[in-house]
Task: structure prediction
Amino acid sequence: MSRHFAAAFGAEEQGQLMGLTHDIGKYSDAFQKRLLRNGAKVDHATAGAFECWKKGQACAAFCVAGHHGGLPDGGGRGDNPDSPTFWGRMNRAACGKLESYSAWAAEISLPDASLPSFIGRDPLSADFFTRMLYSCLVDADYLDTERFMEGAAPPRGRTADFRKLCSQLDQYISAWFPPKGDLNKLRCQVLEQCLDQGSMQKQGVFTLTVPTGGGKTVASLAFALRHAREHGLRRVIYVIPYTSIIEQTAGIFQKILGSENVLEHHSNILYDTEANEEITPDAAKLMRSAENWDMPVIVTTAVQFFESLYSNRSSKCRKLHNIADSVIIFDEAQMLPLGYLRPCVSSIAQLVAHYGVSAVLCTATQPALAPLFREFLPGVSISELCPEPVMSSEKFRRVTVKMSGKLSWTDVTDRMNRELQILCIVNSRKAAQTVYSGLIGEGAFHLSTLMTPFHRKRVLAEVRQRLKDGQPCRVVSTSLIEAGVDVDFPAVLREEAGLDSILQAAGRCNREGKRPAGESIVAIFQSEEASPPLFDTAIKAEQTALEQHGDPASQETISCYFSELFDLTGKKAQDQKGILPRIQEGDFPFKTVAERFRLIGDDTHTVYIPMDGGKALTDRLRQGELSKDLFRQLGQYSVSVYQQHFQSLDEAGALELLEDGSAILTDLSLYSKATGLSLHIDNGNALFI
Result:
């Protein structure tokens, strides 16, 4: 199996070598005692790694060494034999400190295995290749164990038949032709172009720059299915920045292609069996496919995708070999995390250059990533899939953006109170609560990450209904509402931010295009308070782009904005944890890099809110249940807070801290049904007698 998996990127001999050597340490008498007489644990992985190392196969040696405990850091040649680094373990073997396992040589012949020429002296390529190899070994090991334990090969995912999937898409879109109305004509032009280009284009890097409302979700899928069929690829992977929009996209794909062909994989989806012993065969397949992505179409998050690529753990890495020979669509590509932009682009470049991947950067606000791709993929040509007349068509212009200067919070609330329906987006949770407190009358709503996901969904459902019914609806929100949340307001106020945020906000105004653009106003204002420092660079880039080009929606302005943003941040800020320089030192720092690469920072704490359905779940947590199923359900009733906020809650006696590190809110007066968890906590509750 390891050989077969590695064949996807021309490394079958390496795969076979790993499969044969990974367990040869079990030939020792000590390991036989472990099996037969419950003896002490034995380090069997170092033995196989040492045999690979003696054959000059460093990449395979790392994989074998880490096939249980994770890929180790390389360390240095002089590391102590007791060190957990790779070199420490090789020195331990060289000193004869392993149990004798020599009996393997009577039964196994190890193949010679050549390394791919692209590795050369490039540490980035060697590091990435090792992770891909590691994926082949650990997935094969998991599957072989699974087959042994169950007595037969268990049912796994589906093999992709892209001819059939293309036919299903063709049937789904057939009703859209001939298109009715100018807007639908433009959408169908985008769709037809993507269908044609999917068959015509060679593999590589592409952009799909479609204005909001242009139908990019189905169009990008159409390109991917045709492209996969044309080039004999194995799957389509759709990478989305937030879980808030992933369910919507997965639902569309399942409707088109059938739920049996689409795997939705993110932190809020449940495939665990603890809560349902009578799991269906289809659910069992999905559960297993989530482990190694062996389905035709995968819909996942940027966190899941990129953290897996830089992980060193077997459970996260086992899916990587199934990324080879795929079309990967990065939806809302402008939201690739700025602090990890260089490592993210580097990994995409590796996949395109050496693993048969075509990548599509899909968005209405295309980031200017061509220079960065050319750095990691010299000579790359990036092709745009959207027809130029469509990209610049005035038919997609559904709003008018106006600069409103500086406004006080009172000015903002007065303006909102005069409107029947209006959305205001601000840059901080504190500002959202301040504006909300000034709203009067019925139909006032607040949205921020201080509210649980369950709470936010309930509010959004009521907001959508009020908008539909023409009832009063005044909403103040943080930027969470900008990422693909389907709402349609006649007017929007947006606190000044980056141009990408402004255009995302504009996508919540006149979304259906039923009102004249001149009457659908998106007003940009500067607040009376300084925005969080996080916004400073983006605001400077936005101001420069607007000064030079004026029209915020033009491609020239957007390109200028991102170029200015990348120039202002600089290389160091685009790799804030120093991931790539650390890898380029050439000592294979797998464990260190995995610890550094965290798209979601570890400077926050999760607080569970025992309200609504959360109470029964927190009761289970208090009783000691620690299942994956429970924590995923609890995610719908949780709020993430920064250290200072968490400490204030704790000092006020408002939290119950459990042994596993979980925190449950005990003072429910601090959670408002309007605004969520309070930012203002009186520290220290005292009892006077």
